[in-house]
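We give its fold:
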Amino acid sequence: MTRSVDHSAAADTTKRLTGFMSSLDRSMPRLTTGPDLSVVGRALADTSRSQMLTGLLTGTAWTVGELASYAGVARSTASEHVGHLSAAGLVRLVRQGRHTYVSLAGPEVAAALESLSLIAPDRPPVASLRGQRHARELAAGRTCYRHLAGAIGVRFADHLLDGAFIDEASQLTHEGCQWFIARGIDITADVGNELIRPCMDWTERRPHLAGTLMDRVTAHALAHDWIVRTSHPRSVRLTDEGERQMFSR
């Protein structure tokens, strides 16, 4: 027995279903376009580019030639790499005369790089004596963009907390205000910027301190020889005067 099909009823059902789906689609919230992490991922995927970004964690501007030397590549290759990093929004370029100066695009880039260092696998052990010395110096003390990191940075964070110069929330206390002022360090807050915030240290695996005030501490410490640069562009060493000024009560 042949079963008859009511084509008009089927068409009506299809029409109603299409109308329902259309109204449902209009009522659904539109998902905004999220950040394209793949752009940053591609920029970081090259070893030489990652090495350049590590160098820029000094917080200073480098020429393309200096970055080429640091990463061990030709200047023309370094220039291409800088272009990739700039397109990804990771670095800022300033042209002055014959030179192009390259710096990190901002503290948020430095914070992201430091955070990625926590989950990145360790590089193979360095065979050269110079490389081993650099590794020890970086672990002992270094600049993370514009603030102190490494063993010195973590020790300084502990000192401020133990001395009640900051509280458990990394907020400056009354005693802390007096401590910094006595050492000639400006404690004025910048609108929109945190004075102090914890930043996980990738070598110590404990927090050091970042923020506007910590940037000022590092600049002041370098200017007054409390800390001095060593053989690696990022590493710093605590001086006797720095020990007295930074770790006294």
